[in-house]
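Are you able to produce any protein sequence you like plus the matching C-alpha cells because I've never seen that pairing?
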Amino acid sequence: MEKADLVIIGGGPAGLAAAVRAREAGVGRVLLLERNPILGGILNQCIHDGFGVIRFGSAMSGPEYAARFVDMAKDAGAEAVTGAMVVGLSPERTVTYITPQGLFEVQAKAVILSTGCRERTRGALGVPGNRPAGVYTAGVVQYLMNMRNLSFGRNVVIMGSGDIGLIMARRMTLEGAKVHCVLEKLPFCSGLPRNVRQCLEDFDIPLCLAETVKEIHGDDHITHVVTAKVDEKGRFIPGSERTIPCDVLVLSVGLIPENELAKACGIEMDPVTGGALVDGHLMTGVPGIFSCGNGLHVHDLVDLVSEEGERAAEQAAAYLRGAIEKPMVPVTVSGGIRYVLPRRLAVGEEGYLSLRVTLPGRDQKLTVTAGGSVLVSKRMKRCMPSEMIRLKVKNVPDCQKVEVSLS
C-alpha cells in the first residue's frame, strides 16, 4: 500500500488550487487523483472567457485558467495521476483507485474531496412524452461542440436558465442555429445577470419565465415540444400551451454535487446543497476528510472555487500539524436565506460564510449575530438566488449559536 500525507480526489479548479497551496503550506507528499485523461475538470470545455478576473486580474478562457494552475501544481511538486477512478474511501482515509495499470490503494493522513458536480438529466425531471434522440444536457452539448468539434441541430429550445444553458444559447447561435427561447420554470432567472445580458439580450434570444416544457414529441428524433405557463406552485396553467418545432432540446436544470464517495464513507450530507456538512475548517464529520469546491456546494465563479480549495488545503495542513482542535459554534439561518456554509464556526477564529437567498430582493439587510452581539451588518442593494454571498466573520465568540438573517 502506498502512503501519502494528503490525497486530493478531483483535479479540477478546486483540486489544483488545493494541491498548490498544500505544498506551499509544507505538506510532504501530495497526491492528486483525476479520473479524466487530463487535469482541469470542466474548465477544459469552457472556451468562453471570464475566468480569472478576481484571481489573476485578467479575463481568461477555461483552458487558459486550468493550464495556469496545472503549471503551478507541477512547479510546487504535487504528484498527479490522471485516468485514475477512485472507487473507495474509508473513514480511516484509505483511498482505492483504478488506472489502466491496475488497482491501487493509498493510505492518506488527510483527504480533500474536490469531486465537482454532475448535471441533472431528463430522468430526474419526469417530463412526459416520447424518448427521442436530440435531448441533451447543456454540459454534453458544450463538450461535443467545444471538445469534439461537432455541430448538431438548427432549431433549439433550452429548458432551464442555468449559466451553462445561457452560455450554450449564445454558442449555438454563433454556430448558426436558431435558439427559439430559454424556458425557466421559476419566476426569475437561475443564471447570473451578466450571462443574461451577454448571452440572451445581446443575441435577441427570448427568456420565458414561469414557463417550461410540458411534453416532448418525436419518434426517432425530437420534432417539437409543447410548453406551458406554470403558477406559483409549479402547476401547469390550462390554456397556456404552445407548440415549438425543434430538433434539439437542451436541458440546463441544475447541478448535483458528486458525493458518492463521501456517502459511502459515512459522511453526513446537507439535504439543501447536496454536499457534505462541514465545519469552519471545511472538515466533514469524519476526521481528516475535507470537502471544497462544487462538490461541497455549487459556486458562481471559478475564482471562488479555487479560493475555497486553497482554504481546504490550509486547514488540511493545520490538521496534519494537530493545530485545529478548537470548539465549534453552530450556524443557523432565518429570514429568506436558503442555506449557509459552513454549519459550524471555530471559536476565536476568523471564519468565512457562503450563503444564498431564497428569492430575489433589493435593499435588504444581512445580519450575522452571536451571543447578542452583531458580528456583521451589511446592506444588500440586490440579492439574487443565482449569486452566492460571501462574508468574513472575525473573532467568533463562544456562544450557543451564530445566526444569519435577512430582513
Q: What stands out?
A: The chain is about 20% helix and 35% strand. Helices lie at 13-24, 53-56, 62-76, 138-146, 163-174, 193-200, 260-264, 302-320. Residues 1-119+255-325 form a domain with the FAD/NAD(P)-binding domain fold (CATH 3.50.50.60). The first strand starts at residue 2 and ends at 9.
